Amino acid sequence: MDKAIFLDNAATTRTDPEVLEAMGEWQGDNFGSPATLYAFGSQAKQAIEAARQHVADLIGADQKDVYFTSGATESNNWAIKGVTEALAEKGKHIITNQAEHHSILMPCGYLQKKGWEVTYLPVDSDGLVDPADVDKAIREDTVLVTMVHGNHEIGTIQPLAEIGAITREKGVYLHANAAQSVGHIPVDVAALSCDLLSLSGHKFYGPKGVGALYIKRGVRIVPLLHGGGQEKKRRAGTHNVPGIVGLGKASELARKNLASEANRLSTLRDYIIDKIEKNMDDIRLNGHRTRRLPNNVNVSIEGIEGESIMLSLSYPTAENARPVFVSTGSACVSGTLEPSHILLALGLPAELAHGSVRISLSRHNTREDADYALDSLFAVSERLRSMSPVYKRGSKQCASGSSGEGCDCEAAS
Fold it and tell me: Distance between CA 276 and CA 65 in Å, rounded?
């Protein structure tokens, strides 16, 4: 089998060799616990604090405000549950949006069952939240606004700085889920005016199972995990020293290469979008065309299922001797047959949402990879469409679900 082309980097990325090397010594002889007082343990503690500084530098934070977790899911849960519990006497109202990650939506749903009220703001056809809607939704009993920074599925970058200015003026905490944006675009907690921010190492070439939560000094929050006194008594549990060191190294590398790599990936992203639009009929680009993560392409292909495309590309055939790995949605739900709740929130009909394919790039992908993957995508899509009992070329189904020459929406143009 020829070498596969991995284009599902929004789900996870290959751990950088320099990261693996940095982690190595803490997985072997240097196994001491950082919680101990003797020298063997204090070395691990020093390594953790050095990593904390690298993470802080990447997001423009004070290193004292960075807390290590097992990843963005834990960080998101901690931010939402920890703040709402700490501020329950002030009010029980939370604001989020309909196109959020499940690690935001499910904690919000959990709190709803316990008496909190959650406002799920709509997004427009590009996936953007209107800051004016946030302003209108804030009430006297609102304690938290939680918003994704860069959407994991459609790549849209939310106007968090504008939203943060509103929450700061209203005295409401803002939590940013920045798992997809940290390490890929500039992220500065002061510029975003956020009070909390989640990130995950394996989204930017670090190890799996480690992340961080930025908590601005003075923010009221209770622990999610209770036990020992680690992380200044805010997050119990023995430190994952190799993982934390790896996250620190990934943060250091990301900061060095951020601008050049974001520019390279944006160019490759736009090349892919342009080639798809020029070579395929009846497709829709999902997400904002310019306010977009540099590594994200998401398109709906009318007349066929995204799962069929994904599976056809992943096995070597005459159409694609090299397997190509893409996604049909976020990794957490790609095993289900339900249409993406994010695409439905954009206004897409279920059948068009089912035909979505996400291509997400990494620093390892090249123009040659893109050309091969796209040629395979075109061949597979043509074959699947030829077998479809419902697809009619040029039907131009629009986001509202209508079709035909009378449709003038953007999806049909």
Answer: 43
Note the pLDDT tens digit of each residue in 219-231. Answer: 999 999 999 989 9
Q: What phi, psi does 204 have (nearest 5°)?
A: -140, 55
Q: Known catalytic residue: 398?
A: no
Cα separation, 334 vs 313, whole angstroms:
15
d(CA 397, CA 283): 9
Q: Where are the chain's structural domains?
A: 5-10+258-412, 17-254
Give the count of beta carbons closer than 10 Å to the beta carbon of residue 277.
13
The CA distances from residue 159 to 163, 191, 313, 377, in Å, are 6, 11, 35, 33
- Which helix (H) or strand (E) segment holds residue 154: the answer is none
Neighbours of 323 (CB within 10 A): 17
CA distances from 350 to 122, 278, 360 (A): 17, 25, 22
| Start-to-end C-alpha separation, the chain | 39
Which CATH fold topology does 17-254 show?
Aspartate Aminotransferase; domain 2 (3.40.640)
Reported as a single tens digit per residue, the pLDDT across 125-171 is 999 999 999 999 999 999 999 999 999 999 999 999 999 999 999 99
pTM: 0.92
User: What mean pLDDT is reported for the chain?
Assistant: 91
- If one counts every other C-beta atom within 10 angstroms of the C-beta of residue 49, the result is 13
Higher pLDDT, 396 or 290: 290
Q: Domain 5-10+258-412 - what CATH class?
A: alpha beta
Length of the chain (residues): 413
Q: What is the DSSP string of 68-131?
A: EES-HHHHHHHHHHHHHHHTTTT--EEEEETT--HHHHHHHHHHHHTT-EEEEE---TTSPPPH
Sheet of 93-97: strand order equals 66-69, 211-215, 196-200, 173-177, 142-148, 93-97, 117-121
Nearest in space to 114 (alpha carbons), one of 90, 140, 85, 141: 85
**Mean predicted confidence (pLDDT) in 62-75:** 98
Helix, strand and coil in the chain, % to nearest 5: 40, 15, 45
Q: Which of 332, 398, 407, 409 is catalytic?
A: 332
- Whole-angstrom Cα distance, residue 329 to residue 349? 15
Vertex 201: Cα angle to 199 and 202 (nearest 5):
120
SS3 label, residue 318: coil
Asked whether residue 351 carries a pLDDT value surpassing 70, the answer given is yes
